[in-house]
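Write out the bound-state structure for cytidine-5'-monophosphate.
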Amino acid sequence: MSFDLSVFSNKNIILAVTGGIAAYKSAILVRRLKDYGFNVRVVMTQGAQAFITPLTFQALSGNPVHTELLDTEAEAGMGHIELARWADLVLVAPASCDSIAKFACGLADDLLSTLYLATKAPVWIAPAMNQQMWAAKATQRNLSTLVEDGVHVIMPEAGSQACGDVGLGRMPEPEDLAEQVREYFHKAQRAIAEKFGLLAGKKVTITAGPTREAIDPVRYISNHSTGKMGFAIAAACYSAGAEVTLIAGPVSLDTPNGVKRLNVSSARQMLHLSMNQLETGCDVFIATAAVADYRVAEVAEHKIKKAGDELAVSLVKNPDIVATIALQDKRPFMVGFAAETRNVEEYAAGKLVAKKLDMIACNDVSRADIGFASDENAMTVFFAEQYEMEKRDLEKASKQEIAQQLVEAIHDALHQEKRPV
Ligand code: C5P
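---
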């Protein structure tokens, strides 16, 4: 299963272009599909080549364009049967009246019609034609046959047409088509993750980023945490089938696909929302946030004016979020993090016990190449005594890969807790 659900580098799409003025939009469609990470191969009918050249699609897709059925050279490369098997989806856009009629009759007199019969992949068609041709009884009859045969029809839109008519028959914009394809594969992957993923059915809450403790209305105390590790873990948990809530301090990161994000500022807000999660259900709590240890005792109501050479601000201790959650009656599986500059393992092991955690991941933030602002990390993971688990060293890797390994560690621990005999 791919880690990032927005990238579909293992999914193959055949974009079949038939004869119609909307063929120019298909060039942009290839770009958008490639942007999402899909592998795209383009098949063109004779009619399509009157509107746009194969070279355009070859350049955009990065693959040879397929135009001939009975061409020995083409068949020696990727023949029509291989092409039919390669596809995870066949998208015919634009689909002309003629191609629709051929599919409905089961003709096999060119590459596309043959491919249509030979593929097991879902077939989507985006009809585009003159509004009168769209409304013609024969076209509608053929479309009904295709729908009965399981073809997905992307309805044409109404508007002014290249021929001067106004009515139904315009192909939807390429961005919309690409988005529909993305959504389809996203849902399919999600369904698999929810059934078979390592955290299928689990509710996971993750704290991430720094907290911000106000001094006055314009100033605050905070730290350099970027939230990258927590966001990567949220994405990995979602990919593993979990329902994920991310309680994020102020960071400038996009919310991972499918993840519910709650923004907070201070440690106390973070604690409040974390406690709420226990009410709504939480199986795993992962504390990656760099929570400010102290907050200002009394936040000034107005901006503090410059006066004198020194300014004393009194600080009081913030609540320990992870330790507070761990003390609750119905506590989730608790995962903490330890960032240390020395005696890393010793301090981490101490925190595991002191905060009553089930698992702790620790890293050495004195190393410039990993940790805080870096895109990479390396960690050692310890488990509480009641788990039959040795410590795990996660070698230096991208935060995404480390997140994936942490998900595996959580899954293994959830399945290996020693049961009383
Ligand atoms: O005590 P220390 O800050 O080193 O502990 C780090 C771990 O505890 C992290 O998992 C962090 O998210 C969590 N923590 C917390 N609330 C605090 C301080 C730390 O949840 N106030």
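---
Residues 207, 267, 287-289, 291, 318, 320-322, 336-338, 351 surround cytidine-5'-monophosphate (CB under 6 Å).
The domain at 12-190 is CATH 3.40.50.1950 (Rossmann fold).
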